[in-house]
Amino acid sequence: MNVHVTRYGSRNWAVWIDGDLLAVTVYRKGARAIQATLNDLTYHNHVTILEDTPNTGTSPANAAAGLAAVQPG
Questions:
Q1: Which residues pair with 12 in a beta bridge?
Q2: Counting C-beta atoms within 10 Å of the first and last residue's C-beta, which end of the chain has fewer, N or C?
Q3: Helix ranges, the chain (H)
Q4: Residue 17 pLDDT
C-alpha cells in the first residue's frame, strides 16, 4: 500500500492511497498524521481468522444436539 501526501489546491493537503484520494486536510500536520497511522497499520499487519465451523468448546454443557439450552429461571 503506497500512502503519500500532496498539495490539494492552494490551501489544503491530500492523502492518497495507491492513487486514490482518501482525505483532504487543512493542515499538512493532519495529513502526515493520517499517513503515519496508515503506515503503522500496514506495518503491524493484523490478521483475523474466521472459522466456518463453530468451536465445540463454546456450546453449553446441558444442550442436546440441535436444541438450544434452556436457562433455569
A1: 8
A2: C
A3: 28-44
A4: 94
Distance CA 19, CA 39 (A): 15
Report the residue count for the chain. 73
How far, in Å, CA of 67 to CA of 32, rounded?
54
Question: From CA 23, how far away is CA 7, in angstroms rounded?
Answer: 12
Distance CA 56, CA 52 (A): 12
Q: What is the pTM of this model?
A: 0.58
Mean pLDDT within 56-73: 57
Q: What is the pLDDT of residues 14-50, one digit of tens each?
A: 999 999 999 999 999 999 999 999 988 766 556 566 6
**Whether 34 contacts 25, CB under 8 Å:** yes
